[in-house]
Amino acid sequence: MNDRTTTASAEPGDDVTVAGWAHEIRDLGGIAFLIVRDKTGKIQVKFEKDAMDDELVETGTEVARESVVSVTGAVEEEERAPTGVEIVPDSVEVIAPADPELPLDPSGKVDAELPTRLDNRTLDLRREEAKAIFEIRAEVLRSAREAFRELGSTEITTPKIVATGTEGGTELFPITYFGQEAFMNQSPQLFKQLMVGSGLERVFEIGPIFRAEEHNTPRHLNEATSIDFESAFIDHEEAMDACEQVVRAAYEGVAANCADQLDTLGYDDFEVPDEAFPRLTYEEAIERINATGELDTQLVWGDDLPTEGEKALGTDVGGHYFVTDWPSEIKPFYIKDYDDETELSTGFDLMAPNMELVSGGQREHRYDQLVEGFEAQGLDPEAFDYYTKMFRYGMPPHAGWAIGGERLVMTMLDLPNIREAVLFPRDRQRLSP
Ligand code: AMO
Question: How far is the CA of 385 from the centre of ligand 1 (A)?
Fold first, then answer.
C-alpha cells in the first residue's frame, strides 16, 4: 500500500488513505466517530450521518472493533479531536473483519490475566504498554550491538544443537539428531571461547539459550536470550569494565531513543546508572547479607547466595553491583582460579540489584589445568575433546561474560514477571504459541 499515510503524519489539508485497526466506535446519534489505530498512533474519522452516503456511514460505524480498515478522505483540523485532527471520509473499506468476540480487549480498558495475554500475544501487542516493552527491548539489543562494535568485537552465531552440555551437564533438553542423542545448547560458552583462539580474538553473540530448569518463577525461562561477550588478552577486571559499558549503553540507548515508550509505561524518572558499579568480593557479600539479619541462618564461606540473600544485599547496595572472587568450587570448570589462591576464582556476577543479571570470569586457558577442571566436576574430558584440543594449539588468556537479555529488560523496566519481556515465553506450562 504505497499510498498509505500513517496516522501520525496526517496533516490538515492533506487527502490521505490511512490503514489500521478499528480501535473504537463512538456513536453520538447524528454524528459518529471511528478511531483508527496504527503503529504510529490513532486518528479520528468523523461521520455526519445526514450529510453522508448511508452505505459509507454504515461501513464505518458498524465495523467490528479490531477489524483492519482503510479510510480515504480529507484531513481537517478539529481541536476537539484527541489528536487535533480528523478525517472526513470519502470511502471506508473493511480489509479484514474481526470476530466481534475478542479474547482480550486491545484498548486496555478491560484488564486480562497474563496467561490470556500470552495465549493471544498478537492482540496483546496491540496494547500500547505491551508494544512499548518490545520496542524498548529492540533498542536494548540495538545499543548493545553498537557498544560491542565500539569494543571492537565481531558478531558471531554458534550452533544451538550440540553434542554436550556446557553449564555442568545438567538442565539439558535432549533431542534426537538423526538417531543420535543431542541437546539444545545451554550457552554458547565453549564456542565463544574457541573463537578467541581463532583470528577473531574478540566476539559477541546475541542468541537463544535453552535451560531445562524445573524452576517456575517470575525470573526464569526455559528459553532465554543470552548476550555473550568473549575476548582474548583481557582479564576478569577488564571483562567487568566491558560488561559495565554494554549495560550502560543499553540504558543510554533507551533514555535517548525511547522517550515515548517510557512515557507510555509511566516512567517519568528513568535513569541511566551514573556511578561506577561497585565490586564486592564474595566474602564481603556474605558478611553484608549476614549483617542485614534477613536470613534465618548465617551464610558461611562456600554457600551459594540464596535468593533472599541476593534481595537483602540488593536493597542494601541499591544499584548494580558486581560480586567477585567466588569460591572456586561453586564456579564452572571453565572459570580460572587465581594463580596465587587456587580456592578463589576469577568468576564474577553482576547483580541488578536484586537478581543476577550477568555471570562471567577469566577462563582457564591452560590445557592441563582445563582437563583437570573437567575431571574435578565429574565431566568426561573425552566428550569435550573438540573443545579441549584447541587449547593445545595456542589459546590466549581470555575472559568474558553473558547478560540475560530478558533480565536486562525486566530489571531496567522493573517488570513484575520476566515473561512480560518475551514475545512467546517457554516455561514449564507453555510450549505454544
Ligand atoms: P549463566 O548460566 O549465569 O552463565 O547465565 C548468564 C545469564 O543468563 C541469564 N539466564 C537466564 N535468564 C532467564 N531464565 C533462565 N533460566 C536463565 N539462565 C540464565 C541470567 C544469567 O546471569 N556461560 C555462562 C556465562 C559466561 O561465563 O560467559 C552462563 O551461561 O541473567
Answer: 24
pLDDT digits (tens, 9 = 90+) for 123-143: 999 999 999 999 999 999 999
Q: What is the total count of domains within the chain?
A: 2
Q: Please write the tens of the pLDDT for every residue from 291-334.
A: 999 999 999 999 999 999 999 999 999 999 999 999 999 999 99
Choose one of 156, 407, 420 to mutate for the ligand 1 pocket test, by most ligand atoms within 8 angstroms of C-beta: 407
Q: Is 167 marked within a binding site?
A: yes
Say what the pTM is: 0.96
The atom number, within ligand 1, closest to the CA of 349 reads: 22
Pairing outcome for strands 85-96 and 41-48: parallel
Structural domain range at position 78: 7-96
Verify that 14 and 140 share a domain, yes or no: no
Å from CA of 21 to ligand 1 middle: 39
Long-range contacts of the stretch 305-313 (C-beta < 8 A, 24+)? 310/351, 310/354, 310/355, 310/356, 311/354, 313/285, 313/288, 313/289, 313/351, 313/353
Same structural domain, 358 and 268: yes
Q: CATH number, domain at 261? A: 3.30.930.10
In a domain, 243, yes or no: yes
Report how far ligand 1's centroid is from the alpha carbon of 257 (Å). Answer: 27
Look up 137 and say whether it is catalytic: no
- Cell digits of residue 54: 448511508
Residues 138 and 89 in one domain: no
Is 18 inside a domain boundary?
A: yes
Q: Residue 213 annotated as binding?
A: yes
